[in-house]
């Protein structure tokens, strides 16, 4: 392709063509992207709830209420807790698995296909499946634990306050480690082998080679994988809904579950809008910071 | 170890890796196995203590019930929603991506804004959208959900198709233009066919997203367009669950995805990582 040719193509008469191509997509994106943002912002300064449709300007009323709302901060804390535990485990386990399948192995392709199954099923189905697995009496998990313990185990995985988080994180890790695995496997396969071999000949150990040669090579891909998973974890809803619905009480309520409850159970229209806006702001800040920090901005 | 000959050491290593691989597959596949197996169990087998690890015979009565009660129709609803929204998102997204790539419309800023829309937390969108839909009477309609799924998938489609379209040589389009094709004809007769493999790969993931989606469906459907994911949660109970129905419904909803992904396996990596890994 030449510069002249590209210019010719661009200078072709039908000048509005390129805008016609974009119009429907932009319209839809504004509808689901900008409209909710704008709406949330406006309504969050009013006082609309189930009883009252007061649309007069209420100032920072809803935002002030947030500081007193312990359930909101708890929900943010739960979301953070799940994220900081599940994300590193998924990453490290995925990386270890990627190394395991990096070299030749008989039936490698079949293994990989089977390992990817959890990632492609619906999170709701994943949650439902683990609900069945975790059942205290008819589920296989307590049964297997019983074999090791030597006596029957009747742990209430989705009810016992000490066990709900392990249950949720287990399910989460089960579903999304294969995602990390698949991406990291592709990234590792692209690392220049002559470099790692040269390092091995020079007597560099595994960790040294990994830190100096492999990690810089796979980092751009790994950073995006971390970003995608981090974002998904920050908005986790389906798995919680299927496993615990936020219970016992509000113990496993994440920010998404809490926002849902405020909007569709308490009908706190204005307050929900304020929370939605807060969530968008927090995520935007964190993501922008993460993109800079991870060197993804170009 | 060091006293062993080199090839023996290599064999030990391979055996160990093989063993680990098998253990991993066992752990990751077992839950899926359990889901399938429960859907074929009789009530006696489901509520047996200790649990039955494999059913004595395969029987389909759990599925029969779903078809008889009409619950299985929710899978059809999911199919309509996912297919229609994928189709529309692919067309709108591809032509938008073409504009971004060939004419640099809006520059880098527009492209970044589009991908940033993907980061929107669904829960922050769903509430305003719900009120909007109530106003227009779009709640519980196919139109409403197709519109939303299409819009939600657009950033992904545009982002992915941008990469594929960049790979198409410009000369082909030029010669078509010289031959007297209109702009639209170039798009349909040159660009679309050239980007075919990219279109399919992207479509699979768009389809899977719409197929597996839950939150929007939960909020925006009532009885007419209930999806299978929402239907599964209807079988959850406070004290007891309808286990057979949960399992059978989940399997009905999972098989099409397995099928879609299996046929598109070679595109899996590039699709899953949003083009981060050139697969």
What does this structure look like?
The complex is a heterodimer of chains A (298) and B (279). Chain A has helices spanning 3-11, 17-43, 61-68, 70-100, 108-120, 123-133, 140-149, 164-189, 193-201, 206-234, 238-243, 255-264, 269-293, and strands at residues 47-48, 53-54. With 298 residues, chain A is mainly α. Chain A has a single domain, classed as MetI-like fold, CATH 1.10.3720.10. In chain A, a hairpin with a 4-residue loop joins strand 1 and strand 2 (53-54). The model of chain A has no long low-confidence stretch (mean pLDDT 87). Chain B has 279 residues and is mainly α. Chain B has 2 domains: 6-59; 67-272, MetI-like fold (Orthogonal Bundle), CATH 1.10.3720. Chain B contains 14 helices and no strands. Chain B has helices at 6-39, 43-46, 61-69, 73-102, 107-116, 122-136, 142-166, 170-178, 183-194, 196-212, 215-220, 228-234, 243-263, 268-272. The interface between A and B is large, with 96 and 95 residues.
